[in-house]
């Protein structure tokens, strides 16, 4: 297997030396494929409109179809990390040639969920070659210390026995596990809600919460609301369509472009 680890790029972090805070930084950038195929967008808009009109009370959970994408991995980047992350992504042309012989396709069919209906998504089926490409990109980003949230998992049997990151090199990661990629396209996502209470009760709750926070390092989260299954049951086996993958992009979670989509920092073209 070819190894794509340019010596001019950022040296990987010693993952064992990362503090707990560094490992658990909230992601602010991600790698993704945009779902822009017009026929696919039509079906996503159909889902959006159907839920909005039939169950307006639950429309607040919907994701705007113009933002639809399939996430390949997330990461926390400081400002000075961004050029290196862009360079790394753009360096994978040889991996594309190795794994991709024809335009890769993502097919969306049926509905799934995470967290007991807190996230509702369209199931995504990806070609084997594209799955292999994504696996290697995730591993190499991980080995360089860029990727964190779905990639840094509890220590298990070392993942790196297949020479993606060669033994004896400066890029060797000796332990850890890269979690499997589970492609999906989010359709709905719960929002944390605060329950209305009287002023007196609110003051009591605030006082009690502050007292608890003084003795705890972890802030208490607001209760989450599950999305009722009946909202999307008519789409459980729905065929949304497909997307030909022509580009993988590094995107910002916090900044939008003029077209309303996530701000693009760089990308890897897949010209087949």
Automatic annotation (TrEMBL):
<dbReference type="InterPro" id="IPR052641">
    <property type="entry name" value="AKAP7_isoform_gamma"/>
</dbReference>
<dbReference type="InterPro" id="IPR009097">
    <property type="entry name" value="Cyclic_Pdiesterase"/>
</dbReference>
<dbReference type="GO" id="GO:0010738">
    <property type="term" value="P:regulation of protein kinase A signaling"/>
</dbReference>
<dbReference type="InterPro" id="IPR019510">
    <property type="entry name" value="AKAP7-like_phosphoesterase"/>
</dbReference>
<dbReference type="Pfam" id="PF10469">
    <property type="entry name" value="AKAP7_NLS"/>
</dbReference>
<feature type="domain" description="A-kinase anchor protein 7-like phosphoesterase">
    <location>
        <begin position="27"/>
        <end position="268"/>
    </location>
</feature>
<protein>
    <recommendedName>
        <fullName>A-kinase anchor protein 7-like phosphoesterase domain-containing protein</fullName>
    </recommendedName>
</protein>
<dbReference type="GO" id="GO:0034237">
    <property type="term" value="F:protein kinase A regulatory subunit binding"/>
</dbReference>
<dbReference type="GO" id="GO:0005829">
    <property type="term" value="C:cytosol"/>
</dbReference>
């Amino acid at each position: 297997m070819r190894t794509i680890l340019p010596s001019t790029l950022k040296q990987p972090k010693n993952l064992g030396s990362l503090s707990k805070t560094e490992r658990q930084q909230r992601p602010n950038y991600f790698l993704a494929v945009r779902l822009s195929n017009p026929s696919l967008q039509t079906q996503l808009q159909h889902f959006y409109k159907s839920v909005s009109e039939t169950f307006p009370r639950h429309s607040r959970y919907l994701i705007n179809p113009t933002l639809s994408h399939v996430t390949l991995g997330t990461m926390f980047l400081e400002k000075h990390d961004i050029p290196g992350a862009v360079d790394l992504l753009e360096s994978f042309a040889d991996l594309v040639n190795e794994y991709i012989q024809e335009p890769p396709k993502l097919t969306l069919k049926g509905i799934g969920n995470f967290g007991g209906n807190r996230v509702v998504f369209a199931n995504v089926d990806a070609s084997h070659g594209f799955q292999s490409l994504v696996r290697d990109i995730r591993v190499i980003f991980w080995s360089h210390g860029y990727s964190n949230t779905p990639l840094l998992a509890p220590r298990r049997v070392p993942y790196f026995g297949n020479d993606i990151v060669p033994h004896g090199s400066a890029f060797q990661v000796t332990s850890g596990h890269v979690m499997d990629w589970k492609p999906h396209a989010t359709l709905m996502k719960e929002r944390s809600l605060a329950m209305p209470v009287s002023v007196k009760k609110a003051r009591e709750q605030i006082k009690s919460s502050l007292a608890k926070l003084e003795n705890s390092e972890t802030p208490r989260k607001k209760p989450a609301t599950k999305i009722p299954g009946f909202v999307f049951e008519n789409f459980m086996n729905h065929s949304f369509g497909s997307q030909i993958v022509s580009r993988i992009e590094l995107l910002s979670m916090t900044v939008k472009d003029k077209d309303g989509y996530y701000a693009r920092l760089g990308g890897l073209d897949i010209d087949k």
